[in-house]
Amino acid sequence: MQRKLALLLTLTALVLALAACGGNKNDTASESPAGSPAEETASQEIVINATTWAFDKTEYDMPKDTPVKLTLNNTKGAHGIEIVGQGIEIRGNKSKVVTLPAGTYEIHCSIMCGSGHKQMISKLVVS
């Protein structure tokens, strides 16, 4: 009897743990799927290619106060980008339409990707 109860409790805990690991719908809600109205209003697209511990450019430029589609392309490894202090994060091979005021912002990898993770830093110059 105790074995059956222990098995039942273990299975219940497993089901709850798997349900908790389900996708976070809020994480992708602000990302623009292809063909969405937000994507259509973007004036240009900036593609950020991420590879093993590096972005393809040390600096990216975009116009101020203008919607721009930022696209993260993981060419090697699993990476994400965060624009520091702006609450903007893109994970995986996804896009997001963003509008920023003039300034210089730091972009860094937001997914721990290995020993060179801390070196994955670039600039976004908005003018």
Automatic annotation (TrEMBL):
This protein's UniProt keywords: Signal
Q: Which SUPFAM superfamilies match?
A: Cupredoxins
Signal sequence coordinates? 1-19
Species of provenance: Cohnella endophytica
Mark the transmembrane ranges: none
Protein name from the UniProt record: Cytochrome C oxidase subunit II
Top-level taxonomy? Bacteria, Bacillati, Bacillota, Bacilli, Bacillales
